[in-house]
Amino acid sequence: MSTFSGLNTALSALYAQRRALDITGQNVANVNTEGYSRQRVELAPVENVTEPARYSISSGVGDGVRITGVTRLHNEFMTNRTRAEHGLNEYLQAQKTVYTNIEQALGEPSDNGLQAQLSEYWTAWSDVANRPGDPSSRTALLSRANTVAGTMRTTRANLAELYTATREQLGADINVVNQTTAGIGDLNARIALAKVADMPTNELSDKRDQLVLRLSELTGATARPKQDGSTDVLLAGAVIVQGDTVRQLEAVGSTTVDGRAAAPPRVQFVGGGIASITTGKIASRLEALTKTVPDAVQGLDDVAGLLISTVNTQHAKGWDITVVPPATVPTPVQGGDFFSGTDAHDIGVAITDPTKVAASGTATNPFQGDNAIEMANLAKDTAGADVRYRNFVVDTGVAAQTINRRADAQQVISDDVSAAEQAESGVSLDEEMTNMLQFQRAYEAAAKVISVVDTTLDSLINMKR
Length: 465
Hints:
Elements: H1 3-29, E1 39-45, E2 65-72, H2 76-106, H3 114-130, H4 135-196, H5 202-219, E3 222-225, E4 231-235, E5 238-242, E6 245-246, E7 249-252, E8 266-269, H6 281-315, E9 339-340, E10 348-349, H7 370-377, H8 385-425, H9 429-464
Antiparallel strand pairs: 1-2, 3-4, 4-5, 5-6, 7-8, 9-10
Helix pairs in contact: 1-9, 2-4, 2-5, 2-6, 2-8, 3-4, 3-7, 4-5, 4-6, 6-8
């Protein structure tokens, strides 16, 4: 190796170690940047290759070092696993929130909940049975009945508001999906162009992977990398992003729980075609709109409808203590509807006059309380409104508990997978500090080689003078 060749070798070392220090600095600078994948300089020796000839010779020593590229330390398998686990986690967490809201709307168990109010309502019938001629007991009964009806209407209204809010959230999530897919398409185009121009794409790829992860959390989307550096994104096999071409989504269907039968909520591609979304936050929104919340509303409506029908049927068998002027003594009238309405949406108390309460079982003696006793006994009916409501609350609680357990377990899995991916591609300050010292010493050594060669050349030149 000639002295001039030594200068060139040392100079290549300076360039390579300086570039390695630059990349280390980039890693350190982005240690807290979400989604950043650490990078590594790939070095390779420059071989001293000579063409075979009669008088060709080789020193057997290479010509320095060269940079073959900057590698993005990224594990596609771990990334795909993270997307899948995050999508399922978002689905379960959203379901957990829905059930929490439903349980809050029901407010059970509670000393002031509907179950307690029903119990007080049936007790009020017992009081009327004990004192059928006492106006205060009849007034208290109507007050308890109005409380029950009002709670049912309020609870149903809260569930209806939950449906409407969930429907609005679905629309907002779809807007986020469309913005995210547009961003992925734009980054795909920029990455493909940079690849053609042999320009670095590591940071662009990190940003795109973050958007794909966000899309997976919303829709459970999967990704398929391509040779040109772009990534296709699919929803249950249907392409939503292909290169820089993007398909937009839209949410359609009723925004009210009572209109869902005529216009069921769904997500579709703009221009037609149902989008199959089976996991992610949007899948949870759809399930809440098509099953979870409607089932809760229907359960409450069934309880209210059963209460209305059973009470009205029994009330019609009794007689009240109506006084028809000019008479001064009761002229009993057979009981009419006690409750008005058909379900929890419009349930009300049809009676405002306490004398219209049909507590007696006979017209000959309106001050008996035998029909009121039969009313109070409805609380014990195994097929009555109380039992149905308790079963409804228990079923809701069991479903909520199941979702809560699944959500808690999935959160742990999701966190573990994220930690594993971070360990694979994230920045470790300890590792970077070690690399920094290594590259620094290599740079200093290369500079020392240049200094030594320079001194040697100076001595050689002075010897010739």
